[in-house]
Amino acid sequence: MMDKSRLEAFSxxxxxxxxxxxxxxxxxxxxxxxxxxxxxxxAHQWPSYAAYVVSxxxxxxxxxxxxxxxxxxxxxxxxxxxxxxLLLLVVGVLPWTTALLAExxxxxxxxxxxxxxxxxSFLLVTMLFYLLQRHILFGxxxxxxxxxxxxxxxxxxxxxxxxxAPYVVATAAGAWSAYLTLALCALIAVYYxxxxxxxxxxxxxx
Amino acid sequence: MMDKSRLEAFSxxxxxxxxxxxxxxxxxxxxxxxxxxxxxxxAHQWPSYAAYVVSxxxxxxxxxxxxxxxxxxxxxxxxxxxxxxLLLLVVGVLPWTTALLAExxxxxxxxxxxxxxxxxSFLLVTMLFYLLQRHILFGxxxxxxxxxxxxxxxxxxxxxxxxxAPYVVATAAGAWSAYLTLALCALIAVYYxxxxxxxxxxxxxx
Amino acid sequence: MMDKSRLEAFSxxxxxxxxxxxxxxxxxxxxxxxxxxxxxxxAHQWPSYAAYVVSxxxxxxxxxxxxxxxxxxxxxxxxxxxxxxLLLLVVGVLPWTTALLAExxxxxxxxxxxxxxxxxSFLLVTMLFYLLQRHILFGxxxxxxxxxxxxxxxxxxxxxxxxxAPYVVATAAGAWSAYLTLALCALIAVYYxxxxxxxxxxxxxx
Amino acid sequence: MMDKSRLEAFSxxxxxxxxxxxxxxxxxxxxxxxxxxxxxxxAHQWPSYAAYVVSxxxxxxxxxxxxxxxxxxxxxxxxxxxxxxLLLLVVGVLPWTTALLAExxxxxxxxxxxxxxxxxSFLLVTMLFYLLQRHILFGxxxxxxxxxxxxxxxxxxxxxxxxxAPYVVATAAGAWSAYLTLALCALIAVYYxxxxxxxxxxxxxx
Lengths: 206, 206, 206, 206
Prior knowledge:
In chain A, 69% of the residues lie in helices and 0% in strands. With 206 residues, chain A is mainly alpha-helical. In chain A, helix 1 runs antiparallel to helix 3 and helix 4 packs antiparallel against helix 5.
């Protein structure tokens, strides 16, 4: 068993760095000979700004959820550390999937593939988060602070599993339209950022 | 309601990373054939150094103000987390607006636009900071440690709103001269860094 | 003697940043004229993904071990700070050794050399970790929380020394095949990530 | 007055990020056509490795000293925050001065200049550190935990001022030989990393 404070510090560090590295995908246009139109160049790279905002909000919501989850546990066992490490591994790759989508959103070839990779990386984070939650709920080590009865556990688990659905849809939508994936991911992030729909960590409240 | 310590840790992380990523916009000149003049090349990129210093001081002042604000509250509610996330979203973009200004400060085309983007990004941070303050002062959740009466709240709110003015001026000045925007942003940062003019967090002291 | 909390904070910071910088070696393919095959381009750079995953897991395991070690000590003396700094110096270089292996894994020339550098950098981390452990076990300052008798100390030290062997093998294997080095490093990381084989910090439990 | 824990967290963050960004100056050689000699290419960029190691150790020593200083104070006033921010501003620029020296160390033109910039940036950090110390020792706010009499204060101040000398020499030496600057900076870092010569924070011990 491990004290959870350093787990929080390390996770906060990785999430904070990944969220801040996102900006590296927004390029500074090279000053052109003969007074080219900077306004046009900056406007042209709007997918970079859109992808930055959507990814930033999504990682921000991941962080809020991560926080809400970890504060409910007493301590961390080795399995939780490993799930958490896998979660951070995928969070760490988000600056790349974001840069990829920003680069290919308007390309005739590649937009659908990169949108599915983009949505899929969020789906993967959500799945790992679900597994981490499951381990907290049903693991042998009873990591939760409060006692939660079996009915409540199963109800929370069911609701968490439902939480995967939006990203399944957003990922699949990429096969049809990359813009749709980006719009859906934006909606999901805004939805979770709204107070009333904020993620609820494992608890026995109904 | 959320314990504020992890909010501080995450915000400190993002601000510290954004401030340190600023250095990436200062380029190492490529060694030239035939012994070109490195002194000249380094001197020529003075806008990079100026933009680095101004942005570093400004983000540093943002951090000091952020700290002064968060320590006055008891806890963080969901709305505060979201305002804080939006604030960090704009802070995270400052390395890009800094690199943009450094690249275009002396260009015949683009200098005015990039100066307005540069000043505007600071203005946006200040506006989000103002909204965060307003939520702390007037929000239903009474996030403040100490009781502050209504007259004091309104006085603080008025003063905070006045704090937006310098960046409105600095941003607008960019339409006339990019150098002026940079100089004004430098002045504002130095002014706030001076002890006597340090930002005052919500409190009932007159 | 130094309070260990800031040592942990600084080490967590450097390890978290190094692990998150790994993503910078995964490139975004340049959109090609005439609709080139993005799927093929992304598939072609699989060494980048493989190297990312192996290095991320390895640094993650380093972090878990580092945590397990530091929590057993009472305080940090100057020698421990210096060993820790050297350890972080090598951890800080891992994004480069990872990028190097990813770039050269399939090259006819350079693959063996870069694999040996890659394995060697992990070996060096492990050696410095071993020295740090030795200092904790046998140093004059008695940094451990709990008393451990001499027989136990020597047993732990022997086991720690054995822990160097896998990376000696992985590094040497690079002379024969770079793929083998990468596979062995993956195996070692997965092995240490498994709960039952988790690294055991100095303790007097048998 | 400000609680010092967030000052430490923010400073640790900036120092940890600056030290980890150092690795970005070590380049991955582009795989050459026709099986070029990677060993030669890697050996050829030894200034990058040397500059990395020297800067990493120096920033590490700066961190150890920073820690030793901050733990002696009760709280931070605004002046200390500003000195600290300026200190971090120069620490944040060290990845650039390091990359600059690595690039120009062997160039016929530019080596001397970049060596003086390299040494000068360390000198500037040391000077700001000295001013921060002076403020702690003699400032009106009595930031120290323990009472120190005037004789002791002046003795400590004198010794701190002497601490500037090595970097004055290392910087000036750059006018003669860039290699000498690098070697002197290496010596200074190793000297301060040795236990017996570790930096002594303000205290009344003789």
